[in-house]
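Appendix B. Extra example for self-study. Work through it before the problem class; the solution is given directly after the inputs so you can check yourself.
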Amino acid sequence: MIDHEAVIGLEVHVQLATRSKIFCGCSTRFGAPPNTQICTVCTGQPGALPVLNRQVIEHAVRMALACGCTIRHRSRFARKNYFYPDLPKGYQISQYERPLAEGGQLEVWLPTGERSRVGITRIHVEEDAGKSIHGAEGGQSRVDLNRAGVPLIEIVSEPDLRHPVQAAHYMRTLRGMVRALGVSDGNMEQGSLRCDANVSLRPVGTTRLGVKTEVKNINSFRFVQHALEYEIARQSDVLRAGGVVRQETRLWDAAAGVTRSMRSKEQAEDYRYFPDPDLPQVVLDPAWVERLRHTLPELPDARRHRYVEQLGLPPDDAAALTREHELADYFEATVAAGAAPRRASSWILTELLARVSDARDVARARVTAERLAGLLQLWDDGRISSALAKQIWPLMWDSAEDAQTIARREHLFQDSDGEVIEAQIRRVIEDNPQQVAQYREGKQKVFGFFVGQVMRATSGKANPQLVNQLLRKLLD
Amino acid sequence: MTDLGASDLAGRIRAREVTAQAVTRAHLDRIAALDSTLNSFITVDAEGALASARQVDQRLERGEPVGPLCGVPVALKDNLVTAGIETTAGSRVLRGWRPPYDGTVVARLRAADAVLLGKLNMDEFAMGSSCESSAHGPCRNPWDTGRVPGGSSGGAAAAVAAGLCAAALGTDTGGSIRQPASFCGVVGLKPTYGRVSRMGVIAFASSLDQVGPLARTVRDCALLLEVIGGPDVKDSTCLPAPLQPGSLQQACQRRELKRLRVGIPREYLDQGGLEPSVERAVREAIATLAELGAEVRDVSLPHTRYAIAAYYLIATAEASSNLARYDGVRFGPTLPGARGNLDQMYSASRGEFGAEVKRRIMLGTFALCAGYHDAYYGRAQRVRALIQRDFQRVFDGGCDVIACPTSPCSAFRLGQRLDDPLQMYLADIFTISCNLAGLPGLALPCGLCDEGLPVGLQLLGPPLSEATLLGAGAAYEHATAWHTLRPPLDPVTS
Amino acid sequence: MKITHDDVRHVARLCRLELSGPELELFTHQLDAIVAYVTQLEQLDAPLDGSEAPDSETELTCPDREDEEAPSLDRELLLSQAPAHDGEHFLVPRIIE
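Solution. Structure tokens for the complete assembly:
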């Protein structure tokens, strides 16, 4: 029984965050009424011609640089010819022989800490097609061309992925990058991040690629994993039964949890690519490309490394913080304002995230990073305890005031006066002779009871370390 | 009034010697009298034309400024997109299409206060050299209505020759302005590729198509090119070099050709295959150029004989892609057989293409097919580069202008060439290389053949040399009388 | 190479042209003659190294525009020219996935 390994490559389409479409000035805003963001160009009217949106190239180059690709200073648009009702010109303007970028790589981290390198074959620019809506009355389909002409980049990976989980994390990595770069909002559910997977099996230890199938209609990270798991199992069953995998395109059916063959696409289309004669070659100034390279923001992976190596954060915290760049930005602002990194990260991942519905909203949180730093500094300075901090925190949310003001007004500063605490402790000891006896007999757990009593008597404000220290002294 | 040229009319209207409305009415009357025979117009917009003319007259009355084409009646080949006016590209596939916009050249004509009379007949989607493949029936040559006017801008050439409009705009992809101009005895200019915007030109072959004027005189062509030409941000292949206003008309004041070096390609004139009286007329014209002071010399364009093959692969490949948008979804007539399933929709809507268009779409698709792509389309592009280099060498090597025939023959009879498409293609030999190389080309009337039909002389120049071509043409025109000949049509009171 | 009926059928399918029996016959014959003619390009020593014309230094470079929204065309105006629409969408016969 031969052991097989899966070989996976992903083709990811990213919708670019531009105001207007790639070849015309129509808006790219999501969710507009059908056919209200269209013009002669994006509806392929006779005589209409494309004019390139320069922001598209800038976004594409920045993403390519972030992926370590080689940028082609002269690239060309090419026509991909096929017939479909939501493809107005009967061809898609894409890139073929001379794409914008080639030959990069990404590092993919798994939660286990495992790292793997995934090669990027190419990144090219193209336009999106419109949408066909099926199942209308009278056996017709409806065509909405709002999306036709929205700019995309296609990122093609080498077949370097081996596990569905790894593939899902590759997608997450791409998402983090496009969001950190501001190149796209990377939303799989809304379709601004899409992926088609190519998957095949081969005997472990061999290098020749097996027959691959293409899996489409995957629209979440979870489905990337599930669809690939299913398809790998399916192909494995075929091979185990002595059969041969058929090269075909399959659709992921999330409801049923299976992939289905797309019969209509069985014949490979001949796209007859040729350079688009309506668009001269795209020429990039090498100096401009270099400037873009130097102004790239720190990417999520680099950030995560830095948080672990330089700021001493636990890897899980670092990973959680860098999942959304807004969260990482907030964290860094908090540290910049004087908070200790580990305390800040811990607080953000628990107390802050509990208060926002979406991690991306922290930038607009009522409590700013500076204010949070103020709170954490009080704690660091010993002026409040963690318990008191947790009392002050909700008040900061309500009033948007700083921690110091609130603590002063509500008398929430820690009591660190040794004499006062000692007096309290003595009173508690006096009032609880039974427990004192139990403690002296060796029941260590009773200590907690005394701590609780002292804290209660001081309305939680006694400095816990002092309480512990003095209590031990007086009990022992 | 229908015998005066565009510049002449503009001047008289501006001087208020004659009203724009009178001029327009005269042309509309002449169309009504003659065009049922000629069939050069597909759509006549009498209402719109008279309304524009009235506006021009009113502005002149009020002493307000008017554009350089004020009141001049111009007609447009039907592949030029006109807002609200039916535009069909000579095809059933677009019948009833009222475009939602004006193409750039149309907008520029309007801005210059031209009066747009209507849309002119053409070979379907500009594919043809005889105007016989139009869905609206063939157009006829005013010189002999049993003959073709040439194509694909046959309607434009015929209308100008018959005095139905003062000037016209056509398009030229492989000779479609120059050949019909020659067949009908008028002047036709194909500008340098990129000189005039293609936004609003229904595409045939994107890397070859150019809009250009047809008129009775060289100066009228110059005036029209000044109005329609120049940079356009809406066409990414349009050259950024600006057109100096007045510069081309200025060039038309030339009267002699001293120091003009004229090359005669031996592959064009010394290979035989020309109708004898056509060849004679062209040689006499070249002799006239020499008399005017030009230095005539022998030059060579060695890759000439591959031009037609290269053209018919590149042009049809681009066309097969450009015509994919005619799929029955967003424009075109509602067809009964189109609603069953998707395949039926495609076959019904695209079944409306004529035979020549289908043939070229298939040839172009074939040229791009996997397995053939490099041997056909790829090779053709490399040959194109060789042809471009041929011209570059000739012009760099001490030649200002190339002179040659426009067509190996004069206007042939209707129906004569329909059975052998390849034969039809081979006659493009003198015009096609110019499109492949993106060069400007001017066709001028230079005589009559033995049958009394017009013959055209062609002048080709390096990129952006329209001023030189027009100057040479003007000097030739001034020294000859061919441009004053008129086809023998029934006289109409004007 | 000789163009066969199958070649023509394949090409016609790619460009969505439905040919009648006589059309298939005629076009096969005509395309065969034309392809035979254009095949003479083989005679030239142009090397077969990729179908794209070389990028030239003198060739025009792609102009571009600012990323600004421009007003869209009126939906009614565009839909009114379509063979079938429902006031909001273009309508096509059912697409079977």
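Self-check: Chain A touches chain C through 54 residues (CB under 8 Å). If your reasoning did not lead you there, revisit section 3.
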